[in-house]
Amino acid sequence: MSMWRITAIGAIFVLACAGWWTLGVTTTMRSNEFGGRLGDKVEALWGVPLIQKAPALSVQIPGSEQVRWIMPASNDVQVKLTTEYRKKGLIWYPTYWCDFSGEYTVLNDTQVAQKVRLHFDFPDPEGTYDAFDMALDEKKLSTTINTREGVNELIEQQPGQTTKFRVTYRTRGTSTWHYELDPNAGRVQNLRLAVNTNFRDVDYPEGCLSPMDAQASEEGMLLTWDASDLITREKIGVIIPEKLNPGPLTSRITFFAPVCLVFFFVLVATIGILYKINIHPMHYLFVASGFFAFHLLLAYMVGLIWIHVSFLVSAVVSVSLVTGYLYAALRGRFPWKIAIAGQLFFLVLFSYTFFLEGVTGLTVAIGSVVTLAILMKVTAHLDWDEVFTRNRKTVTPPPPLPTPEPPAV
User: Are 382 and 273 in contact (CB under 8 A)?
Assistant: First the structure.
């Protein structure tokens, strides 16, 4: 293989990388542009990340404008989170239904009567709440509600009296759900908060308190926070798992394409050397085009059909193009079975690992080592001086000039 061929193949590889970079940037811009613009629309139609605050309880200090914050004697909160994903453009948004039920016990442990001011905030001031119910000691509160201002009630209690405050509703949110303890009290007593999900891929926001118990249920997970007397500034929260997004996934696969191509180029060059096949740089150009066809089809099909079907169709088209071309262009001398196996391994398998979180790097590392081992084995007997001088033309030196005869005397 001559140096000009190596240079030409390198130029083709750089050209292919430029094409993939352009396609990857285009796909990323489409995802980010539509994702940001449509994300606001999804929140406007469905809801925002919900933060439910615990009710705040305070008592007016006699003869003063100051208040004394008190804690509920018990906090029993039941939450059910049910995912219902929404797709806009190339992005799936993690939207969910939230069924909330909270029961709080207010105890007057003083020797005098007191009036407790209760304030309850809604998780989304602009949200919509279905099946809403609020009661004090089983007596429903049918007052008007302003979701921006919350609920304000005055509870009159005699010494030792216990009052139960209960609130239930159903609403919608996106991405995360939080429960914030009352920062005015600084502590919470007899807390039992249970979150029942219909998904098992559970994660928790940064800076949030992880559950004391997490068990698998029939539908998903049952997460429980239990504490008799807890002092913390942390919230309680759950992250709604994201669905596989075709836009960002396609961008990552596209930006990774040069790695797949360089492995296949090495495979093609090795086969050419071992089988003594004259593979022209133009052959490499069409091979790179066949690889590019995979990512081009995938980028524009994922917005129309299921991503796994898009991946399968793109892979079949690309493998057929590359293998069929090598077989036809090299007149059957190129081992097409090896070409199929190489493209399935370096293009299809490497690209599909992006569907599986956390295994892409390991798969590429193992594939690189295995490929290196195979190449070292099959090329160990080669005389590389002969390989790189095989195509050089041998220049025949001119015949020596005849020696002139001395003149006759």
Answer: yes
Q: Measuring CA to CA, how many Å separate 207 from each of 53, 175, 225, 238?
A: 16, 16, 15, 11
Answer for the pair 326, 343: CB distance below 8 angstroms, yes or no. no
CA distance 100 to 11: 62
Phi, psi of 348 (to 5 degrees): -70, -50
pLDDT at residue 395, as a whole number: 43
What sections of 256-280 are H helices per DSSP? 257-274
Give residue limits of the domains in the chain.
Answer: 3-32+245-389, 48-239
Fold of 48-239: Immunoglobulin-like (2.60.40)
Helices (H) and strands (E) in the chain, counts: 9, 17
Query: What pLDDT band is residue 191 in, cutting at 50, 70 and 90?
Result: very high
Q: 3-state DSSP call for residue 219?
A: coil
User: Residue 196: what residue type?
Assistant: N
Contact status, residue 86 vs residue 39, Cβ threshold 8 Å: no
Buried-exposed string 200-209: b where 16+ CB fall within 10 A, e elsewhere: eebebbeebb
Closest Cα to residue 74, out of 57, 50, 51, 96?
57
Question: Is residue 374 a contact partner of residue 266, using CB atoms and an 8 Å limit?
Answer: no
Contact status, residue 285 vs residue 321, Cβ threshold 8 Å: no
Q: What pLDDT does residue 72 have?
A: 93
Rounded distance, CA 12 to CA 142, Å? 74
3-state SS class at 325: helix
Cα 234 versus chain centre, distance: 26
Residue 333: φ, ψ to 5°: -80, -25
β strands within 159-283, DSSP E: 162-174, 176-180, 188-197, 213-216, 221-230, 236-239
Please name which of 342, 351, 371 lies closest in space to residue 258, comparing C-alpha atoms: 351
- How far is Cα 233 from Cα 310, in angstroms, rounded to an integer? 47
Q: Which residue has the higher pLDDT, 384 or 232?
A: 232
At 101, list the tokens. 């039920």
**From CA 306, how far away is CA 86, in angstroms rounded?**
14
- 351 vs 13, 129, 199, CA distance in Å? 18, 44, 27
336-343 and 257-274 helices, crossing angle to 10°: 160
Contact 354, 253 (CB under 8 A): yes
For residues 370 and 31, the model is more confident at 370
Q: How far apart are CA 229 and CA 137, in angstroms?
A: 24
Separation between Cα atoms, residue 385 and residue 369, nearest integer Å: 25
Give the pTM.
0.70
